[in-house]
């Protein structure tokens, strides 16, 4: 099946989604050069989708799960695609950065994933080139918060479109519980990434999470994880959110 069948083809403005900045950041080898899965992703799959119980043994939490198609929104270098492949899934990924996508394709080809050019795509999350309900589940690590809220809203509509009704979406997001923020601040902030590059980051509270997802997804879990550098007297936190796709015939339906 051609995953792009019935998908959208829309040209997005690279200036509003920081595409050029992300390309440069990956070319410079920033902190996104990671090659092991995030603990939140591992925890999500172990609790909700498929738990690894041995070298080649698994326990599924969903009946007839099989080789489910799973999309990684903002896949970066492909570390979670590799994890999905190791779990026996059929992984797909997308990212704004062409540099990251090239590296992900190379890595996953070496890992044995076939047709990486069709599965790992450079595109905008607001215009995913996949058919309606193509994926069983989706993940998005450190992506929906590193964009403008209005862009994230459009991305959520697209993720919902390509997910099957009842499919899971896991994401994690920056929280406004952060010692680097003014008390009571929540919303967008321009973050300096060095080398003359900056991105727009959104710091979420519970209300903004509900606003982002509740139209299209049922919020199943919402966990706030706090991290603290004790000697530096600095703390920050991230939301870990588990969602389930609602059955809506049309994104524009009221």
Explain the overall architecture.
The chain is 27% helix and 28% strand. Residues 4-11 have low confidence and may be disordered. The protein has 254 residues and is an alpha/beta fold. α6 (149-162) links the parallel β6 (137-141) and β7. It has seven helices and eleven strands. The longest helix is centred in the middle third of the chain and has 14 residues, at 149-162.
Number of helices in the DSSP assignment: 7
String of helices and strands: HHEEEHEHHEEHEEEHEE
Largest sheet: 7 strands, mixed
Which geometry do the CA atoms define?
A: globular
Task: Kindly name the structural category.
Answer: alpha/beta
Q: In angstroms, what is the radius of gyration?
A: 18 Å
Provide the spatial order of strands within the biggest beta sheet: 5-4-3-6-7-11-10
Strand percentage: 25-35%
Which spans of ≥5 residues are poorly predicted at pLDDT below 50? 4-11
Q: Estimate the mean pLDDT confidence.
A: 89
Number-wise, the strands total 11
End-to-end CA span: 32 Å
Assign a percent range to the helix content.
25-40%
